Recover the amino acids of this structure.
């Protein structure tokens, strides 16, 4: 069982696990150190330091796994500080991180929403299954998942995504269910396997343009190349009842 508690750190504590607090995780994922899943607190007085850590991990992600993201290291490394602050304080997005026992940020993921059914729907050619009305189902997008290479293969990504989803399930909103969608680069088989192990199922194919819009990200200017309009990205979704 996960242990829940309040944190004195400048984040909102969601869950923590060590090699002794979850025997299933220890056996299956070989967790050998304490990992803590935290939600970034947008009102924290030391917010600039949180932005700095988020930026460092994000740029590492763009360098290490560039094909997994719609943006590039070249573009984001030039962003001014206020752009990073604005991104992390976006009221429609919440970012969750994994911190190891030494206090290092080793993974992060963002959720965007809730998104209206109208905005969530894709063109028929995407093959996405029908979505329920907003009063029955709250819709979210999961994006920007990244784990430092030295911490992969230990169940960190699965722990992080599960706790982010559980947080959404715990929100006291009117809709009795949540639907979480993610869009994956066509060659990112590891991500497909991860989300499949979490209970996500295939839900069609998307273009990069649709991925950017669904993630609440800005569109590039000018004429878009085939890279942006080819329908090849993998859509996966999961629907769960609230706690």
């Amino acid at each position: 069982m996960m242990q829940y508690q309040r944190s004195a750190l400048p984040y909102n504590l969601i869950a923590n696990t060590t090699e002794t607090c979850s025997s299933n995780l220890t056996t299956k994922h070989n967790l050998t150190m304490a990992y803590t899943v935290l939600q970034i607190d947008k009102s924290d007085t030391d917010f600039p330091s949180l932005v700095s850590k988020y930026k460092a991990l994000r740029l590492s992600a763009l360098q290490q796994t560039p094909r997994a993201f719609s943006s590039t290291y070249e573009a984001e490394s030039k962003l001014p500080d206020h752009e990073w602050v604005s991104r992390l304080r976006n009221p429609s997005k919440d970012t969750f991180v994994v911190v190891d026992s030494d206090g290092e940020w080793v993974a992060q993921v963002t959720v965007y929403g809730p998104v209206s059914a109208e905005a969530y729907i894709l063109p028929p050619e995407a093959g996405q299954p029908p979505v329920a009305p907003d009063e029955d189902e709250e819709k979210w997008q999961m994006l920007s998942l990244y784990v430092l290479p030295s911490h992969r293969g230990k169940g960190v990504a699965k722990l992080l995504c599960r706790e982010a989803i559980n947080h959404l399930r715990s929100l006291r909103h009117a809709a009795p269910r949540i639907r979480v969608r993610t869009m994956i680069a066509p060659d990112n088989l590891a991500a497909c396997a991860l989300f499949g192990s979490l209970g996500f199922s295939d839900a069609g194919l998307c273009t990069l343009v649709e991925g950017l819009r669904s993630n609440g990200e800005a569109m590039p200017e000018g004429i878009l190349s085939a890279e942006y309009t080819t329908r090849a990205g993998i859509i996966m979704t999961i629907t769960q009842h609230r706690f």
Q: What stands out?
A: Strands lie at 11-17, 35-40, 93-100, 105-115, 137-147, 177-184, 201-206, 233-241.
